[in-house]
Design goal:
alpha/beta; ten-stranded mixed beta sheet; two-stranded antiparallel ribbon; 10 helices
Length: about 325
């Protein structure tokens, strides 16, 4: 019997974009071989979802080409609308507001996706098959462009999570609300990406689980309403946040118990570098991160098999 897949997805982007709003550096490239080696140690294959500044970094291109040539990972596409060409401003300061790509007009959305696709395919001499939207913002228009350009897999959906309260353009409506989206892999409905359909694009949602029972979630949300606050239920991701190894294991266990044939992990490339993110600020933080990754990967090695997103697409079709 085949084991479920373990999908490692890395948003591969500039250094500490939570803080850097004008000048983007890519020093985190130097810290990626260590994580790649860890993945290979346990037989796992990361998908490096790559954005504009990283694709423009010769050292990263050399690193990722080697990964591809050795069959030890995949490069996919990741797009930050505010600094990815063609740069046509949507707001008075796109670097400040970081507007969502889905807030741009149709022709600019398509032009940006096509530019990034062409750039990555030229840099890495391989077809782009996998994608994650910048800031998790996805819609039917975006999905249509990906299908047109031959993408097979998207992994932008964050089930149980709404990004409505995370602003992009000041005149916008916030990000995508995924609270009622499926938590399993499914081919998208071209007219409604929250439903299964017969399109050619496979959606592979992030592995995210509620922290509390349905009853406790109702109690907490009722209490929030009394206090005049609007918050969704608390969730755990299969994503390191410092000291959350047990929670990540629970997410994996619950996801597999619900019948999923995969679990999906994510992190940003800059989080492997000291001071590359708000979470892992020091070398000691990075060492603790790797201790948890060793423990998680060792535990998952017995329960899963490593795949890239493109490999999972073939696995899903076969099943």
């Amino acid at each position: 019997m085949n084991k479920p897949a373990f999908l490692i997805t890395i948003d591969t982007e500039g250094d500490n974009l939570w803080r850097n709003r004008q000048t983007i550096t890519t020093h985190n490239t130097r810290f990626l071989p260590r994580f790649q080696a860890l993945c290979e140690k346990y037989g796992f294959k990361p998908t490096w979802l790559t954005n504009y500044e990283m694709a423009s970094d010769p050292a990263y291109v050399e690193f990722a080409r080697d990964v591809i040539q050795r069959g030890q990972g995949e490069v996919g596409m990741h797009l930050h609308a505010w600094n990815s060409p063609p740069e046509t401003p949507l707001t008075d300061d796109d670097w400040r507001w970081q507007p969502y790509l889905i807030e741009f007009p149709d022709h600019l959305l398509r032009d940006k996706v096509r530019f990034m696709t062409d750039l990555l395919e030229e840099k890495f001499q391989t077809k782009m098959l996998s994608h994650r939207a910048g800031r998790w913002a996805f819609d039917e228009r975006y999905a249509a462009v990906l299908r047109e350009l031959g993408y097979q897999v998207d992994c932008s959906v964050t089930p149980r999570v709404s990004w409505r309260s995370s602003p992009g353009a000041p005149q916008g409506q916030g990000g995508t609300d995924y609270r009622h989206f499926p938590q399993h892999a499914y081919f998208l409905d071209a007219q409604d990406i929250s439903r299964s359909g017969d399109s050619t694009l496979l959606e592979v949602p992030m592995s995210i689980q509620y922290k509390h029972s349905a009853f406790m979630n109702q109690l907490k949300q009722g209490y929030d309403r009394l206090r005049g606050k609007k918050r969704g239920p608390s969730v755990n991701w299969l994503r390191p946040s410092g000291g959350n190894l047990a929670a990540m294991k629970r997410v994996a266990e619950q996801s597999l118990a619900q019948g999923n044939d995969y679990v999906e992990f994510m992190l940003h490339s800059s989080e492997f570098m000291p001071d590359g993110s708000p979470t892992f600020k020091t070398e000691a933080d990075i060492e603790r991160l790797y201790q948890e990754l060793e423990a998680l990967f060792s535990w998952l090695q017995q329960r899963t098999q490593g795949m890239t997103l493109a490999e999972y697409y073939q696995y899903f079709q076969a099943r």
